[in-house]
Amino acid sequence: MIARLRPQPIIQIDDIRPSHPGLRVVGVFNPGACLDQDEIVLLLRVAETGQVQDGYFSLPVVDADGLGFIAIAASEYAAAKDPREIRYHGQTLLTSLSHLRLARSRDGIHFKVEEQPFLFPQTPLESYGAEDVRIAAFSDGYYLTYTGVSADGVAVCLARTKDMIKIERLGAMLPPENKDACLFPGRIQDRYYALHRPAVNFLGKPSIWLTESYDRVHWGNHRCLLRPRENGWEDDKIGAGPEPMLTPEGWLLLYHGCNRDSLYSLHLALLEGDDPSRVLYRTQTPILYPQAPFEIAGFFPNVVFSNGWVRLPDDRVLIYYGAADCAVGVAESSVAELLSLVKQASAH
Question: Are 62 and 127 in contact (CB under 8 A)?
Fold first, then answer.
């Protein structure tokens, strides 16, 4: 079973200090997660926006000179149909600027959030934000895949850290338009593998793709692995969640589905251990969907979205998820229970 460990968020907006004067926090959500020695580490997505003053809204952006603001009439900002974006001089901009903030815990529930960003936008690829990180552990450190947002679109960026203190940016792993990328931890045979989601603007629907590499720099042999299904939960689009988890029966994949009403839910698939291009099983209904009040109402309502989970030494699994784009929740299961859930589904 999947059980929420708390009926309320474990991290929320009031727990986060703004990163800069003139900014206010409007969301903390979608954390990447890993075990670092004896602590659970989350890399939170913190979304910040400007202030409304004298009839104008200050929109935060990053350029060569650092953090700056674009002034937009408050009436124009209030008239935006989607709270996440706004049209300005014929261009789509984000109403908030996201960065990654580190939090640590020994029990997996109570976290101490650092006051300063772990990764704040500073490159042209990140001028509109750094979002939704996934963490994969390798022998030479933790590799982070995150979404870089800029005027050139949405790209998959790659970074590495050995100690969760210093971070090395490795640039664009996959160019726009692409997001929801996660690395398989370790090699499979003689190659590295990753999942990603290219944008679809004409034919088809946003789907989960598989790619491979010999060096984690050059990626190829792209192919579509999973597509949305007409089941009321993932009719519109799907995307990969955290790094896949290796089990005795194959790679467990947690992914999100979005329906036509923009409701986000969590699903499972099982991939063959030696060949992740082979889908063995896939759940027919969500393992988690918005039910708690903080998951239903928020900045963007009716969302549970995970890109971080932790497998504990006793094989319990803690699933960290963003709720309504403004808070973080946690649910608990086990490797055996997750395998049972996905195998109860009909074969792919």
Answer: yes
Going from N- to C-terminal start, the domains of the chain cover: 3-343
**Gap between the Cα atoms of 156 and 182, Å rounded:** 10
Q: Are 330 and 291 in contact (CB under 8 A)?
A: no
CB neighbour list of residue 1: distance below 8 Å, 6 or more residues apart: 333, 337
* Cα–Cα–Cα angle for 279, 233, 200, rounded to 5 degrees: 70
Q: Which residues pair with 71 in a beta bridge?
A: 58
Residues linked to residue 205 through DSSP beta bridges, in sequence order: none
pLDDT digits (tens, 9 = 90+) for 254-305: 999 999 999 999 999 999 999 999 999 999 999 999 999 999 999 899 999 9
Eight-state DSSP code of residue 125: G
Which ranges in the chain belong to alpha helices (H)?
Answer: 74-78, 293-296, 335-343
Identify the three-state secondary structure at position 140.
coil
**Sign of the alpha-carbon torsion through 326, 130, 204, 217:** negative
Longest C-alpha distance within the chain, in Å?
Answer: 61
Architecture of domain 3-343: 5 Propeller (2.115)
Torsion, Cα 197 46 40 111, to 10 degrees, reads -150
pTM over 0.90: yes
